[in-house]
């Protein structure tokens, strides 16, 4: 009986493993930056796909800001989300064991990058950052890659000034998300703003993929009234992440739904990805190492 403790421990582990294979719900988090009604409508098709694959109720969670989804993933109340690279970097720094990236969006040409696009109304006579001195510039969310992190690094290098209000730009304002930024610029409430786009396709269509395309599809804007005034260097397309604590079979089934979505339901793929794409494809987590290091550097700077 000397091995009784070991036997009991093994039995406990096996029992735990067996129970861990069962879930009674699955929660999907949708990043902020678009009104909740649109976010739910665009992702409802994914709910049906996941329920069929997992056999449990699936719910969408639409927090007001990016951090609501990040905290949900780390706290265990959200199981899956499509993040921006900067949002994932925050989780990788704060709680490295919380989630794993397994996929990303492939552009129609097969690339895995997008851009932060600076834009203004055509009738405001703004054509570049040089024309933005003393004017109001809008950014989406502090945890957005294209809506803040990358512009906050690249734009000061070009202007020679900080992003603080009154230094170069008259006012630097957070709008709450990409849709809010696009509408604020279009309606004349901001002189210019930044948002995300794949940078491919026609300008008048809002490119192939991104917030401009979403806003065009929704009938919110006419791209002929806007002009591009700045473009970042290529940014890694955001990752599809799943919570590590989930059972292996659940993760495998959920990942398959996303990676097969372009083939099984092209319209759903379009809605979930925010426009035309070549589908979701597998990605190695190391693809985001550079963004993690960039975010760490910004944290050290206190910004």
From TrEMBL:
Keyword Signal: yes
Keywords: Signal
Assigned GO CC terms: ATP-binding cassette (ABC) transporter complex
Signal sequence region: 1-20
GO terms of biological process kind: organic phosphonate transport; transmembrane transport
CDD domains: PBP2_PhnD_like (cd01071)
UniProt xrefs under InterPro entries: PhnD, Phosphnate-bd
A UniProt-annotated Pfam family: Phosphonate-bd
Sequence similarity: Belongs to the phosphate/phosphite/phosphonate binding protein family.
Protein name: Phosphonate ABC transporter substrate-binding protein
Organism: Allgaiera indica
Lineage of producing organism: Bacteria, Pseudomonadati, Pseudomonadota, Alphaproteobacteria, Rhodobacterales
């Amino acid at each position: 009986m000397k091995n009784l403790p070991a036997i009991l421990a093994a039995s406990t582990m096996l029992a735990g493993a067996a129970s861990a294979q069962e879930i009674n719900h699955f929660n999907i988090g949708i990043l902020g930056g678009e009104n909740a009604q649109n976010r739910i409508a665009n992702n409802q098709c994914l709910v049906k796909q996941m329920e069929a694959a997992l056999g449990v109720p699936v719910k969408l969670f639409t927090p007001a800001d990016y951090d609501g989804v990040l905290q949900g993933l780390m706290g265990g109340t959200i199981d899956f989300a499509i993040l921006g690279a900067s949002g994932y970097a925050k989780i990788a720094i704060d709680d490295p064991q919380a989630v794993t990236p397994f996929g990303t969006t492939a552009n129609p040409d097969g690339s895995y990058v997008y851009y932060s696009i600076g834009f203004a109304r055509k009738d405001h006579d703004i054509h570049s950052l040089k024309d933005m001195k003393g004017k109001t510039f809008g950014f989406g969310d502090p945890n957005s890659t294209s809506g803040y992190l990358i512009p906050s690094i690249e734009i000061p290098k070009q202007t020679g000034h900080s992003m603080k209000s009154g230094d170069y730009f008259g006012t630097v304002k957070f709008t709450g998300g990409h849709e809010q930024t696009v509408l604020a610029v279009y309606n004349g409430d901001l002189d210019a703003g930044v948002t995300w786009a794949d940078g491919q396709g026609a300008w008048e269509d809002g490119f192939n993929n991104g917030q401009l395309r979403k806003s065009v599809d929704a009938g919110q804007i006419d791209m002929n009234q806007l002009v591009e005034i700045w473009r970042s260097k290529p940014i890694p397309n955001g990752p599809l992440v799943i919570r590590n604590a989930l059972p292996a079979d659940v993760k495998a089934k959920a990942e398959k739904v996303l990676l097969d979505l372009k083939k099984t339901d092209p319209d759903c793929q379009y809605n979930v990805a925010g426009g035309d794409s070549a589908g979701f494809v597998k990605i190695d987590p190391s693809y985001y190492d550079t963004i993690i290091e960039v975010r760490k550097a910004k944290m050290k700077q206190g910004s």
